[in-house]
Amino acid sequence: MTTQYWLVKSEPATYSWDDFVRDGRSDWTGVRNYAARLHLNAMRRGDEVMFYHSNDGKCIVGIARVTQPAFPDPTADEPGLPASGGAKGGQGWVAVELAPLAPLPRPVTLAQCKADAVLKNTELLRQSRLSVSPLKPTEFTRIKKLAKHSA
DNA sequence: GCCAACGTTGGC
DNA sequence: GCCAACGTTGGC
Q1: Which residues touch A81 (CB under 8 Å, ≥6 apart)?
Q2: Domain housing A94
Q3: pLDDT digits 0-9 by tens, A68-114
Q4: Which end of chain A is more exposed for a tag (fewer CB within 10 A), N or C?
Q5: Whose C1' is closest to the CA of A34: which nucleotide?
Q6: pTM for this structure?
Q7: Into how many domains does chain A fold?
Q8: What is the CATH number of the domain that holds A13?
Q9: Is the CB of A55 under 7 A from strand C?
Q10: Per residue in A3-43, pLDDT tens?
Q11: Residues ≥6 apart with Cβ < 8 Å to A15
Q12: A125 CA to B11 C1' distance (Å)
């Protein structure tokens, strides 16, 4: 099975990479956006996920791994309904479980992504408010490569 | 079903 | 602190 790649955002003031590493794993709950939910539902165990610090940081800081695919978000009003249950399914929100895989040697900044020919068209940049977005394998590889060089 | 008003996110 | 982008809500 081919590994898929994703990017999730977190405000470090709320939940930082360091918090994530300390916890060793995290249920990625509270996503209340249909496009983001679509992506959560498409995640499979073992997919790799870039961890982005929004607001304070504005950089990609580490790589996580999907350890549990989508399950009903326990923080939703009515968890457990089928997530595919119709366009108006305000319920049926889902979460996934992520675990830290490795920090990036150097964070990759938003400015670097914008300036990069490969990364300038990522969903992260095209739709800046989307909290969970897909990455193409080429984009994922590019981020890893940029993380090896000085900013 | 359209659209204006409003709230939220997130970069600057 | 401001503002742009986007989603949601509610009047009609």
Answers
A1: A72, A89, A91, A92
A2: 5-149
A3: 999 999 988 765 444 444 444 446 899 999 999 999 999 999 999 99
A4: N
A5: C7
A6: 0.90
A7: 1
A8: 3.10.590.10
A9: no
A10: 999 999 999 999 999 999 999 999 999 999 999 999 999 99
A11: A26
A12: 11
